[in-house]
Amino acid sequence: MIELDFDDDGFRRNGAPHRIVSGALHYFRVHPELWDDRLARLRALGANTVDTYIPWNFHELPSGEIDFTGWRDISRFVRTAERHGLDVILRPGPYICAEWESGGLPARLLAAEGMGLRSSDPAFLAEVDGWFDAVVPELLPLLGSRGGPVVAVQVENEYGSYGNDAAYLAHLRDGLVARGVDCLLFTADGSEDFMQQGGAIPGLLATGTFGSRAPERFEVLRRQQPKGPLAAMEFWIGWFDRIGEPHHVRDAGETAASLDELLATGASVNLYMAHGGTNFGFWAGANHSGTGPDTAGYEPTVTSYDYDAPIGEAGELTEKFHALRAVIGKYVPLPEGELPARPPRLEPRRLERAPGRARLLDSLDALSTPVHRPTTEPMERLGQSLGLIHYRTHVPGPRPEMPLRIDGIGDRAQVFADGRPIGVLDRNAPGGTLPLAVGPAGVTLDILVEALGRANYGPQLDDRKGIRRGVQHERQRLHGWEIRPLPLADLSALTFREDAGAAEGDPVFHRFETEVDAPADAFLALPGWGRGLLWLNGFLLGRYTHEGPQRTLYAPGPLWLPGRNTLVVLELDRHAEALEIRDEPDLGPTTRAPSADY
């Protein structure tokens, strides 16, 4: 049995003074066959604890079932950490941020207008209760009081950066306790007074989140909580990347000095991130710096969540690993033995495109069943959470050239007239239009909307995807829509034809094949391509784009098969003929991470 508690001076573990040196490592961003390897590397760093979120929307399947098997087996992850001698901190939400799609909230909560997310709105509390009813029974056998390694559970996440609904926070606390969570409960908020005031819960330990100037940050925490342990529950040692911006890095020596300054105060720490991992599939989130959903400032996160962490995306031990390990060793004992070797990697090679292509607009019947609506509807109202969505209608003619406008794009719309690409409209260019003339026979209008990540931070969590309001030709609202959700979870029905073309701006699926003797990690590059999605043996690795900064996608060893492997690319814009397997990542040109100042 493990009991983590605290007194006026600090943490106590089973009655003895204790300092938490934790590292964040998210099981949902790491292939489950690599959990053991990554946790071993975390322990080698000197950590005595691992911290992970539990994203509600990752465990809730499209069917509505809550799943804790396979990649979602939180118990397996926790027990693996236990075998490495690590305590575990869990953060089950309901909101997690984490640069994760919708901050972990299920997209279906946006199907109807009006639900007060992250508030004491009874409709939202009922949904949260359903999540707690599902997740807490999975956690109870893992708690320290029942012989497991879980020593603490977080209530919400940085709530003071969002709101100050004390009744909501009390409901979460009471819900965890009533369901049997009897370990240390805590909150984590930014290092400003108003954030701590909005997120703290009376009687629970308050902790801070920041990336630099620890003594100054802890002064804020002490103003709100005069006694008890000081803890940085997120000490940001890197940063995440956004599409179109440089890759964020933080100098290893400067990071180590900041960590040393923090630990010298006697405080505990959770390194965010110790190992970042990957936003596989459609799981990358987004930020929005604008004042409303139809203002510019939407900033989607890239597929890689490398985070410039000490343990790299493919498990490599970086310069930062060695610098931080040296600092940690000044304050807690380091484990004995040799450091883990770098995982093996595939030999570089170039793959030429296999014969045949499949145009997306020709493949709609193989990918989806249409629904018919008088007006456009967002994805959430059609029961779709992730992917792309296609809208089709007929515009009668003749009509002179007039502007075509989409009201409420989430997030990027490719527009076609009788199958011919006519342009792109983007939510970051609100009010944009495309010229559309219509001949006497009318025109079939197709709109393919690419949904990037839902906002995971800030006030705009109601980030609906697809077309939220409607489509206008000049002032006339267009009606009579055939709509096809395209979650792209199964591509097996696609037909690749040798006579299928690949014009610029025309979304097309391409295939590649390669033989592998012994599966190992690899990095996939698409030089000359535009933007799209890449699958390996049916698994969606994530998004790529010429906008960068990321230039390679991580393809972990467990996804490769001995023998023949198939890769499928859905290129939305600009087609090429080859892709490359590389043995080193390329995350693009760099810039200084904001965490050095926050």
UniProtKB/TrEMBL annotation:
<dbReference type="InterPro" id="IPR008979">
    <property type="entry name" value="Galactose-bd-like_sf"/>
</dbReference>
<dbReference type="Pfam" id="PF01301">
    <property type="entry name" value="Glyco_hydro_35"/>
</dbReference>
<dbReference type="InterPro" id="IPR001944">
    <property type="entry name" value="Glycoside_Hdrlase_35"/>
</dbReference>
<dbReference type="InterPro" id="IPR031330">
    <property type="entry name" value="Gly_Hdrlase_35_cat"/>
</dbReference>
<feature type="domain" description="Beta-galactosidase 1-like first all-beta">
    <location>
        <begin position="379"/>
        <end position="486"/>
    </location>
</feature>
<feature type="domain" description="Beta-galactosidase galactose-binding">
    <location>
        <begin position="507"/>
        <end position="565"/>
    </location>
</feature>
<protein>
    <recommendedName>
        <fullName>Beta-galactosidase</fullName>
        <ecNumber>3.2.1.23</ecNumber>
    </recommendedName>
</protein>
<dbReference type="Pfam" id="PF21317">
    <property type="entry name" value="BetaGal_ABD_1"/>
</dbReference>
<dbReference type="InterPro" id="IPR048913">
    <property type="entry name" value="BetaGal_gal-bd"/>
</dbReference>
<dbReference type="InterPro" id="IPR026283">
    <property type="entry name" value="B-gal_1-like"/>
</dbReference>
<dbReference type="Pfam" id="PF21467">
    <property type="entry name" value="BetaGal_gal-bd"/>
</dbReference>
<keyword id="KW-0326">Glycosidase</keyword>
<keyword id="KW-0378">Hydrolase</keyword>
<dbReference type="InterPro" id="IPR017853">
    <property type="entry name" value="GH"/>
</dbReference>
<comment type="similarity">
    <text>Belongs to the glycosyl hydrolase 35 family.</text>
</comment>
<feature type="domain" description="Glycoside hydrolase 35 catalytic">
    <location>
        <begin position="12"/>
        <end position="330"/>
    </location>
</feature>
<dbReference type="InterPro" id="IPR019801">
    <property type="entry name" value="Glyco_hydro_35_CS"/>
</dbReference>
<dbReference type="InterPro" id="IPR048912">
    <property type="entry name" value="BetaGal1-like_ABD1"/>
</dbReference>
